[in-house]
Structures are given as C-alpha cells and as structure tokens.
C-alpha cells in the first residue's frame, strides 16, 4: 500500500538555524498530492505546504518543500528559522489521508 516515512520527531530549533526534514514515500498513484503539516504545542495540526506534479517546489512563509519523484522524496527546508518554528512536523500523501478518513 501507500506509505510515508520520516525519521524526525518533535523539532526544537535555534534562531537562524537551517531546518531540513526528510520525508520519503511509496505510492502506486502518479497523481498523488504531498503535504507537510505543522503542529505547535497544545494546538491542532495545520497544513503548511501542498505539493503535486504541477507544483513540485511549494513555498509558504519561508518554508519550501521539494518533490523529487525519482527518489520518492518530499523534503522540507527553511533557512534562518525562528524559535516559534519549533513544533512537530508531519508529511503525508493524499492517498494516506483518504484511507484515514475511511477509518481503515
């Protein structure tokens, strides 16, 4: 089935540091969408970025993700982070989200 894999858990950052979060995926659907979510302490997860075949380098508020289909990756970066960027980050696939909504 479809899956994503990321090695990082909660991220605590120093001002000005470079944030790099790695995400790899497996999917049989070539038109899938790819997502990064951010969850700050005691808050609900929020959508940060959405990538697709037509938008392989989405950007938002200094964050940028790069979708590389040849190595099945959707890595997230931000230069010169702020302390407020410390949070839990999740990557996801559109197929993963749909399966979750069905409760399987």
UniProtKB/TrEMBL annotation:
<dbReference type="InterPro" id="IPR013783">
    <property type="entry name" value="Ig-like_fold"/>
</dbReference>
<keyword id="KW-0391">Immunity</keyword>
<keyword id="KW-1279">T cell receptor</keyword>
<keyword id="KW-1064">Adaptive immunity</keyword>
<feature type="domain" description="Ig-like">
    <location>
        <begin position="2"/>
        <end position="104"/>
    </location>
</feature>
<dbReference type="InterPro" id="IPR051287">
    <property type="entry name" value="TCR_variable_region"/>
</dbReference>
<dbReference type="InterPro" id="IPR013106">
    <property type="entry name" value="Ig_V-set"/>
</dbReference>
<dbReference type="InterPro" id="IPR036179">
    <property type="entry name" value="Ig-like_dom_sf"/>
</dbReference>
<keyword id="KW-0732">Signal</keyword>
<keyword id="KW-0675">Receptor</keyword>
<keyword id="KW-0393">Immunoglobulin domain</keyword>
<dbReference type="InterPro" id="IPR007110">
    <property type="entry name" value="Ig-like_dom"/>
</dbReference>
<protein>
    <recommendedName>
        <fullName>Ig-like domain-containing protein</fullName>
    </recommendedName>
</protein>
<dbReference type="GO" id="GO:0002250">
    <property type="term" value="P:adaptive immune response"/>
</dbReference>
<dbReference type="GO" id="GO:0042101">
    <property type="term" value="C:T cell receptor complex"/>
</dbReference>
<dbReference type="Pfam" id="PF07686">
    <property type="entry name" value="V-set"/>
</dbReference>
